[in-house]
Specification:
- The chain is of the alpha/beta class.
- The chain has a single domain, classed as TIM Barrel, CATH 3.20.20.
- It is built from 13 helices and 8 strands.
- Strands 1-2-3-4-5-6-7-8 form an 8-stranded parallel barrel, surrounded by 7 helices.
- Helix 10 links the parallel strand 6 and strand 7.
- It starts with a helix and ends with a helix.
Length: 312
């Protein structure tokens, strides 16, 4: 039997996939989307980073866009991501960028068999390494997990200390995936997961997802690996803090990551307590898919959006 959370997410994401709905939301809801998205331009995102840094919170820059099938478009996305490093260079701020391999050509095989996404990722990571920056490879829907982990392994070997990736707690396979990466001593962001996945591959129950989330975080910490705890769930956050304290795990081995515009009070509280905190700052014109997933996460977000659209 499906849980309410799963039925709700399925309904919202299903409706969001309707082109008429997308056009309506795009035309009416940008003012609302700006709660979750820093802006459409890189300059907007850089300003958001600077504002957060003044409060003791670091930023993760993410140019929105995914599932690119054109070589030209993938190369354009790559150039725009490289522009992030140009914009941040010399500002004396930590540079942390999140990318989706599907936006830079993961689905495109070049003549000779080279994967365009891997080639473009190498360009991005070479620039990041030169600036002592860090790049996280976002995880997408479940059919892409194998190739993303394969490409992460390749890149982590070539660019040690410069690249990490993301694991999703709602997938049954993730516990085994995490353990299989231990030889790399990887920097991993642990998330619950925001895509609509079938019950054949993902836990349908929020309770099971939460339990698996804790297992993954605790196991990664116990293995001595750097762990990015990406959650707004205060119970999980408090449990992680307590686990780390009881296990003698230093605060330098983990951080809390939260989404831009969500639970600003919690972000500030954690930073004031001395924890490393980063806010995931998305920007760009391709904001609709990201925005839809944020709406699908909580029923309260729907009423928030509707109120904003009626005002618009």
């Amino acid at each position: 039997m499906q849980s309410f959370d799963r039925i709700y997410r399925s309904t919202i994401l299903g409706v969001a996939g309707n082109k008429t709905v997308e056009n309506l939301v795009r035309s009416r809801a940008w003012s609302v989307a700006q709660r979750f998205v820093a802006g459409e331009q890189l300059a907007d995102a850089v300003r958001a980073v600077e504002e957060l840094e003044r409060r003791g919170i670091h930023g993760i820059l993410d140019l929105l866009g995914e599932m690119v099938t054109s070589e030209q478009e993938a190369n354009t996305f790559t150039e725009n991501i490289l522009a992030i490093f140009d914009a941040m260079e010399g500002r004396e701020l930590p540079i942390y960028v999140s990318i989706k391999l599907s936006q830079i050509g993961q689905d495109i095989t070049l003549p000779g068999g080279e994967n365009l996404g891997l080639r473009n990722a190498r360009r991005i990571l070479a620039r990041a390494r030169a600036l002592n920056a860090f790049v996280a490879l976002d995880m997408e829907d479940h059919p892409r997990v194998d190739i993303t982990l394969e490409q992460f392994r390749t890149l982590a070997t070539e660019f040690p200390g410069t690249v990490g990736t993301v694991l999703q707690a709602y997938l049954y396979r993730t516990e085994a995936d995490r353990k299989a990466l231990d030889d790399l001593k990887p920097n991993l962001r642990i998330v619950k997961g925001a895509y609509l996945e079938p019950e054949t591959v993902a836990y349908p129950s929020k309770t099971d997802v939460d339990m698996n989330y804790r297992r993954l975080v605790y196991a990664h910490l116990k293995a001595g690996n750097y762990t990015c705890v990406a959650s707004h769930d205060e119970r999980i956050i408090e449990d992680v803090k307590l686990f780390a304290e009881k296990s003698g795990i230093p605060r330098s081995q983990f951080e809390f990551q939260l989404l831009y515009g969500i639970r600003r009070d919690l972000q500030q509280k954690l930073a004031d307590e001395g924890y490393t905190v980063r806010a995931y700052i998305p920007y760009g014109r391709d904001w609709y898919a990201y925005f839809s997933r944020r709406i699908a996460e909580r029923p309260a977000n729907v009423s928030f959006v509707l109120r904003g659209m009626l005002k618009g």
